Amino acid sequence: MVDMARVFAMNGVDVTIITTSGNAAIFQSSIDRDSSHGVPIRTHAIEFPALQVGLPPEIEKLFEELEADCIVSDMFHPWTVDAAAKLGVPRIVFYAASCLSRCAVHSLEQHGSSHKKVGSDDEKFILEGLPHVLQMSKLQLPDWIRKPNGYTYLMNMINDSAKRSYGAVFNSFFEFEGAYGEHYKEAYGTKCWSLGPVSMWVNKDDSDKVQRGHQENVLVDEEEEEGWLQWLNSKKEGSVLYVSFGSLNKFPSSQLVEIAHALENSGHDFIWVVRKTKNDDDHNNELGFMEEFEERVRSSNRGYLIWGWAPQLLILENPSIGGMVTHCGWNTVVESMSVGLAMVTWPLFAEHFFNEKLVVDVLRIGVSVGNKEWRNWNEFGDGVVKREDIGRAIELVMGCGEEGEGMRVRAKALSDAAKKAIEFGGTSHANVVELIQELRSLKGNRRDKPTIEFDLEIEKSLKKN
After folding, report:
1. Which Pfam family is one of this chain's hits (predicted)?
2. In what order do the strands lie in the sheet with 191-194?
3. 3-class DSSP state for residue 380?
4. What are the mean pLDDT values of the chain's consecutive 10-residue runs (465 residues total)?
């Protein structure tokens, strides 16, 4: 979302990012660099309401003080649609997810009986009404869809606010999932713009890439960085598999053992980002195994482990990287595609299983490792994917067979399309220009008309489009 805000600012829009001080620490260095180059962007930090539940009252007042012409807000702030209405300005919802995933959720809302008709939790059913025939099992759906809970109520609020918004923006581009961007407009009855890949657009130098997603007050270990970089540079082009499951993954020891053996047995070099674990009695066995594994693969020069955070953008664009094992988080999917990598998909939680459908079934640039069950981000889950299944998927992506070669060719073509999308005249560039011009036009109309007339004009525009 921050990268998208930077795209707006680079195109002459005056941008204020409203967030907490803790969140600001993750990206402030990029904002400071942009601002020092004359880009009209800044951060406004607010105090996190730790002692209360609800919206800090100063935010709506802040919108007025900033004289906001448009509010772009994360989908998890559905209240902003009402705040924007009070000001008589458009609200645009930002999704940190694929267009396909939002269309899939809408399909399940409209055709809720489809997944309820199957005889068992692992029996396949079709997601109805989508541009492609996509099949899933009930176990692969989020728990709040399978059985209503408190999160279901929140998602209903989010979806309702999306339908009441002026439009939506996605970190995507037409050639990537254009059919689902068009389907979103029809399903939700609002406008929709794909403006990505935004990271490719704004993170052009190494200082941005190495710090993206890393807190500015936490120093990057230069010795560690030099280590993995030297190791990667010593490898042949396209020979290394990059393995990362994001910052929230949580695997039991038994699963880590299977992953480790699969990587070691694959015959391919690999670099694995491993989440740091607590050094207590519950984790001593796991830690001991992983440290022994690390020592063994380093001595054979077959593998390299990075503990904790890793500068993913820099790693992915290294010429030695030839494929990736991913949890199908949307940022990682877009970043992998942007550099033309085929993927081994291992969805875990959130909208990951929907993203897997895009990668494997629609775009055909990846192969599933075979994970069968959605789980909450903070849970281990019951199933363990065996080393044989992991190894099979790795070989399909990294091997020299016809299927792997086809995936790599298609991934490279999408990478080329991504670069063109953000260039002058490209689809995403045109969408940014169109959106900014439209917002400026709405601002001009608002100056000339009372708020109630302006609200009616927004409503007419929504129905027309």
Report:
1. UDPGT
2. 71-74, 91-95, 167-170, 191-194
3. coil
4. 96 95 92 96 85 66 93 95 95 97 96 85 95 97 93 95 98 97 97 97 76 51 74 97 91 94 97 74 72 95 94 95 98 97 97 98 98 89 92 96 96 98 97 97 82 54 50
